[in-house]
Amino acid sequence: MATSYDYSPLFRSSVGFDRVFNLLENAQRVRPISDWPPYDIVKTGDDTYRISLAVAGFSEEELELTFKSNLLIVTGHKEGDKAEGYLHRGIAGRPFEHKFELADHVRVTGANLVNGLLSVDLIREIPDEMKPHKIEIQTVAPSLTSANPQQIEGQRAA
What we know:
Low-confidence stretches: none
Number of strands: 7
Radius of gyration: 30 Å
Strand order of the largest sheet: 1-2-7-6
Distance between the termini: 95 Å
CATH topology of the largest domain: Immunoglobulin-like
Order of helices and strands: HHEEEEEEE
Largest sheet: 4 strands, antiparallel
CATH architecture of the largest domain: Sandwich
Shape: elongated
């Protein structure tokens, strides 16, 4: 059962959340979900992550990683793989493409391929101007609290 949500009331009371609403709308669309090759997403620290894909049989030359505007695309394509001579083919070598939506300020720090496992390391780096910072409160001395207050004498009674 597919449920569709209307986000238009939120658009009226919020500013700058367009990307979040677009992500929610895209997540609702029915798309064929590819679960091959299998992958893990692990939080390795406060602001670090790792995506690991099981790409047995693929070489570094047959894999490609592309990072563009908060989207990480991992593709694999076997070159010159012939089906001749196989009595049983259980190791999948079909082409694949995985797309991972990344949050703002998340970037790829590196990738490596070891024993058929492709690991992509990510880090979230929030710019200094966006981090919380303390604002100094300045005190301005009002004129009533001056060191020598003047006293106004009242009129003398007749």
